[in-house]
Write a structure and sequence with these properties.
The chain is α/β, with parallel strands linked by helices and about 350 residues long. It has helices spanning about 10-20, 65-75, 90-95, 130-140, 155-160, 175-205, 210, 250-260, 270-280, 285-290, 315-325, 330, 340-350; strands at about 40-45, 80, 145-150, 215-220, 285, 300-305, 315.
């Protein structure tokens, strides 16, 4: 498979879509070792890693975009290689052959993982390599040329928890909060394994001193379930529809989602992810916090987003922010919009120091 290159012509398209400063282009950056040539940015993970967005008119299937990877690659002057695959979990990123990402194949892709990254940005792989294996192989083939690795993973491990109930046990638990807690052990183990393998590959390729310094940045997500304050959600009538009168159950689930991300002590998705990346000297960006999900829900503001068709309504500020940055309030879709991906990309660029 041809290695993806983040070409300048695509940067022009990206700048137009997310409003980056005019005139900013991707240029060949010095390699990690100081030699001239491209410096690569490797992206691994789930649908956030490939910049998935729904159709802006219907909310149906949209497809991959440059997402946060385009913003980060442009800001740093790096060449993008994206190994991500929509739907990936912390288990599948270690076990699922990347060659079947986005392929309709009930035998080799029974869970329907996909889509892959945009054409021209997909990282190279061979045979039955997983994302982690393909990225490690790329690192080995490009010593001192990888300047940044990001991983967006873990969300799909806990998304099913939103549907947990006494009659629908998920992770063996009857409620969303306990379901998330039950899943933290495997998440921590899998992410630690992935991050450790990537760090080992960097140290083997670049030497321990240099390889230890290449940023591996783990990401979490906006708390899209806060959008349940203004969206009926999958169980609504009709489902996934803007509403000015949310159900008590949806409001409760939205409130619990904040705790599930932030955690009580170490018992939360974000503390677990942060600890896992730290085992490989990785950084962690708390996107949930950076998108203001931890703002006290008693702090309110007036919001009027035309696409929702709800007029001016009073909502918690954290809800207004998630509505501005994701598609959840409009379509019940968990993905970031252009503004959300731009924010995440800028956070990555700022953390890559």
């Amino acid at each position: 498979m041809t290695r993806g290159i983040f070409r300048p012509v695509r940067v022009v398209v990206l700048m137009a879509s997310v409003g980056l400063a005019a005139g900013l282009v991707v240029a060949a950056a010095p390699g990690v070792s100081g030699a001239s040539g491209p410096t690569y940015y490797l992206s691994l993970g789930d649908s956030y890693s490939v910049g998935y967005q729904p159709n802006p008119t219907t909310g149906g299937y949209g497809g991959p975009s440059y997402g946060f990877t385009g913003t980060a690659a442009t800001a740093k002057g790096y060449t993008l290689e994206n190994f991500g695959c929509g739907g990936a979990t912390t288990a599948s990123i270690l076990t699922f052959p990347d060659e079947y990402c986005g392929v309709t194949d009930p035998i080799n892709n029974p869970n329907g993982y996909g889509p892959a990254a945009m054409a021209g940005t997909v990282g190279p792989f061979s045979g039955a390599q997983t994302q982690g294996q393909a990225a490690a192989a790329f690192i080995a083939a490009h010593p001192n040329e990888v300047g940044l690795v990001t991983v967006s993973i873990g969300g799909n491990d806990v998304t099913p928890c939103a549907a947990a109930s006494p009659t629908n046990l998920v992770n063996g638990e009857p409620d969303a909060e306990d379901c998330v807690i039950a899943g933290l052990g495997p998440i921590t183990s899998n992410v630690s394994t992935l991050a450790g393998a990537l760090r080992s590959a960097l140290e083997s390729a670049d030497g321990t001193k240099v390889g230890k310094k290449v940023p591996i940045i783990g990401l979490t997500y906006p708390d899209v379930l806060l959008g349940l304050y203004v969206n009926s959600g999958p169980g609504g009538t009709p489902p996934n529809t803007p509403t000015a009168s949310p159900s008590a159950g949806n409001i409760n689930l939205a409130q619990l989602s904040v705790t599930a991300f932030r955690g009580l002590g170490s018992l939360g998705l974000n503390p677990a992810l942060k600890a896992a990346y730290a085992t490989a000297h990785g950084k962690f960006i708390d996107v949930t916090k950076k998108t203001h999900a931890y703002t006290n829900l008693k702090s309110t503001t007036k919001m009027d987003i035309a696409a929702l068709g709800l007029g001016t309504i009073t909502v918690p500020k954290a809800v207004a922010d998630v509505c501005e940055l994701t598609w959840y309030c409009q379509f019940g879709n968990i993905h970031a919009n252009d503004a959300g991906y731009l924010l995440i990309g800028n956070l990555i660029a700022a953390a890559d120091k």
